[in-house]
Amino acid sequence: MTGGNLSRDEFERVVDEAIESLPRRFADLVENVAIAVEEEPSAEDLGSVDDDPDVELLGIYRGVALTERSHDAPLMPDEIAVFRGPINRVTHSWHEAVEEVRETVMHELGHYFGLGDDEMP
Prior knowledge:
alpha+beta; Zincin-like; 5 helices; 3 strands; about 40% helix
């Protein structure tokens, strides 16, 4: 078997499990955030990051970090998108794909909490 090859249903289940595994103190702080599974990043997603064009975008946070919010500004719900196609392409086994999904969800939640890429492991 090549690649992660997580089906859509498996992928969605792993995303749900990653969210459920959040420590309670962080889970209680996550409000008004939709977490979506998408097949591929859009051109707009790809244009919004400064990454190497040869590197796959595995997920993206679309919103205003908690650390940058003001109390009087009305906000649309934040969204985290996790991309199934790129994760399946960059992983070499089912187990590796599952771990990458979990890491991607946690990474994007880090952005929600205001952490930059250089501040996350």
